Structures are given as C-alpha cells and as structure tokens.
Amino acid sequence: MKLNKFKIKARIRKGKKDIKNSVKNVKKKFKETTIKSKKDIKKNFKDFFGWVKGAKLVELKECEISKDPVRPELDNIFRTSYGRKIYGVQYKHEIHAIMCFAFTNKIPKTVKELDLMSRDAFLQSATRDQKIGKIAIAYTVWSTKKGGGKLIVKQVFKMIKKSNHLNRLVTLSPLTEMARNFHLKNGAEEIQVNEETQNFEYKIIK
Q1: Minimal CA–CA distance to 102: which of 140, 67, 66, 56?
Q2: 151, 97 Cβ separation under 8 angstroms
Q3: Nearest 5 degrees, angle CA 155-CA 158-CA 160?
Q4: Which residues, in sequence order, are CB contacts of 38 under 8 Å at separation 6+?
C-alpha cells in the first residue's frame, strides 16, 4: 500500500514536471515564432519602402498587353498613336506597374470616344503649339508588385501637376466595383457613371 502511494506521488511529480517542461517548450517556441514574425515584418516593411523609394516613372514604347486585365484588346499601336503614351513604374530595371494614357479636350464615355477625341486633340495640336489636349485620360492601369498601382497614380499625378498644358487627370474605368474602390481609395472623385464605363477624377490644383 505504501509502495503504491509512493508510486502515485512519483507519477504526480513526474506529471507536473512534464507539464512544466511542455509549457516551457510552448513558451520558447512562441517566443521564437514571435521574434521570427517580427523580423519578417520588419524585412517586408523595409523591402516595400525600399522599392517604393527607389522606383521611378518612365515612358515606355510598348507593354505586354496580355497582362493588361482591363483592356487587353488594345494593341501597342493604339496605345502609342496620336500622342497616346504608356508609362511604367520602374525599379531595378523591371517594370512593376503600367498606366496608359490618351490626351483629349473632353471626357470620353467609351473607348471609341477615347479614340476619336484623342485623334482630334492630336490633329488640333499639329496646327497650334504641339501640346496635345488639356485632359489626361487614364484608360487602364495594373501592377505586378504590391503598392505598384497606388505608386504609379501618385507619380503620374505629380507629372501632370507639373505640366504647363494639362489641367485634369480623369479615368475611363471599367464598370466594376474593383475599379471604383481602387480610385476612390487613392483619392479620386467619381464624376459620372456610364453604360459600360465610369469616370473618376484626380483633382489637379496648380
């Protein structure tokens, strides 16, 4: 009977010791995981701001239209004809975001109107001062790196603000909730909703 009591007490002590060791191991693993997570967050934070700070806006001769989630049907000839331009955010010789523009004097509601209005603005500029249109129409934007979309909007905004003939930055966006949320989140105002598109404006104050 005494032996049984001794064994029981020994098992209880062992059980308490095992529980204590398990708790200790859990705390140790939790601490290690927390430290690793903090290091990863710090590294990702540093990498993110590193690429944002080092990125620059560049004009491109062409882009990979198959990666365009908005208007992949528009070829590079369309994107670079009649004064239209392709801009990209470049970091370490790689392009991480794209925004395509046409320049007009009115706000288009369709891609067809965009085409006609930008042609008209281009032809008018040929007989005047070579400066095409007063409105920059962003008709597609996409990014391949986190933060790229927001960054290219900011870079383009700065560029247009410095322009001496462009006074408005307006989008010709697809009629989707994603496009709406993206532009509103980045500071644009909704100016009209059309049958197949919607227009947002980033206010230029000079």
Answers
A1: 140
A2: yes
A3: 110
A4: none
Contact present, 151 and 120 (Cβ < 8 Å): no
Which residue type, as a one-letter code, is found at position 76? N
CB 140, CB 84: distance < 8 Å: no
Residue 175 three-state SS: coil
Q: Which ranges of 55-147 would DSSP assign to H, the alpha helix?
A: 76-80, 111-126
What's the token pair of residue 80? 């670079």
| CA 9 – CA 7 distance, rounded (Å) | 5
pLDDT in tens, 117-158: 999 999 988 776 668 889 999 999 999 888 899 999 999 999
The radius of gyration of the chain's CA atoms, rounded to the nearest angstrom, is 29
Residue 136, strand partner residues:
103, 169
- Which parts of 65-203 fold into alpha helices (H)? 76-80, 111-126, 148-162, 177-185
Question: What 3-state class would DSSP assign to 127?
Answer: coil
Which pTM was predicted?
0.74
30 — pLDDT class (breaks 50, 70, 90) = low
CA dist 78 and 82 (Å) reads 8
- Residue 27 is classified by DSSP as H
Nearest CA-CA partner of 111 in 172, 189, 32, 155: 172
138: left (phi over 0), alpha (psi -120 to 50) or beta: beta
Q: List the Cα angle 51/56/61 in 5-degree steps.
A: 125
